[in-house]
Design goal:
By secondary structure, the protein is of the alpha/beta class. It is 39% helix and 21% strand. Mean pLDDT is 83; it is low at 7-11 and 128-135.
């Protein structure tokens, strides 16, 4: 038995790009009080690849993203971005390096237009000071015009949202809001893009569109993608590498076909059907949550 994915949909198993990883996570430990959220998590995301992090609800996926992007400080472990340690850097500095992300719950300014929301993604790279912005002359005006031209000619056109660029975000459908959030992340000129459940709540057509955009971001823009997603069909369709978390630990890692047939992954998602096994898994989860620092 395997995860319910049509094997004919899986991408050919091509070798991952060679060279150093774009992002390397080594032995991450994260605690909330006495709750062990991440327990020695290690993996690599190769340059020019799509690496997916999957696992049941509560496995620690979003906490992992928050730690990698600098919102949480781990108790132990190391994170390297293109070979350099970023452990001492706060979230804004990591964004300046080229680490961009979207969020599980859409985080947009609903009273602002689509274009203005996207422009906010460039904030970390803007060089104009407060006085420049107040006068809106010289460098501030040049930066603004360059930013608007890049967004309108490249990002908005790429994501096919020109028809809504002047619309307030509050007037958009859920699927279009997700696309705008991706646009804002792309405005950060990312080298590594973290996508937290990019197709959650979308219908089939919206999901297929988003999958196409993600693949194009990888192939045409050369961006490395790290993705958390529950849609197994999409994960197996577009991923080069899959990492599986359960109770804050990596229980499997490999190519989509390998992971889809892994007994531990199947048990984590579907269970064995044995009552005693279910009780053992519940006890395991309770013990993991009581782990001491």
């Amino acid at each position: 038995m395997a995860i319910d994915v049509d094997p004919s949909r899986l991408l050919p198993e091509l070798p991952l790009p060679s060279g150093p990883p774009a992002l390397a996570v080594d032995g991450l430990m994260l605690f909330f009080g006495g709750l062990r959220v991440l327990n020695g998590v290690s993996f690599e995301a190769r340059e020019g690849s799509v690496t997916s992090i999957i696992g049941p609800n509560g496995a620690g996926k979003t906490s992992l993203f928050n730690t990698v992007s600098g919102f949480y400080k781990p108790a132990a472990g190391a994170i390297r971005f293109r070979g350099a340690s970023i452990d001492a850097l706060r979230a804004p500095a990591r964004a300046q390096l080229g680490l961009a992300r979207t969020f599980q719950n859409i985080s947009l300014f609903h009273g602002m237009t689509v274009l203005d929301n996207i422009k906010l993604g460039r904030h970390a790279h803007m060089k104009s000071g407060v006085l420049d912005a107040l006068w809106y002359r010289g460098r501030a005006r040049r930066e603004e015009m360059e930013l608007r031209r890049e967004i309108e000619e490249k990002i908005i056109d790429f994501l096919e949202i020109d028809h809504i660029r002047k619309a307030p975000v509050s007037a958009l459908s859920y699927g279009l809001r997700k696309r705008v959030e991706l646009a804002r992340a792309l405005a950060m000129r990312p080298k590594v893009l973290l996508l937290d459940e990019p197709v959650a709540g979308m219908n089939r057509e919206e999901t297929e569109d988003m999958a196409r955009f993600i693949l194009d971001v990888k192939e045409e823009w050369g961006v490395t993608v790290l993705m958390v997603e529950h849609d197994m069909g999409m994960v197996m369709d577009i991923s080069d590498h899959v990492v599986v978390l359960n109770f804050g630990q990596v229980i499997a890692s490999g190519k989509p076909r390998e992971v889809a047939a892994n007994p531990e992954v199947i048990a984590a998602y579907l269970g064995s059907g044995n009552v005693e096994d279910l009780r053992a898994r519940v006890r395991q989860g309770a013990q993991a949550k009581r782990g001491a620092v």
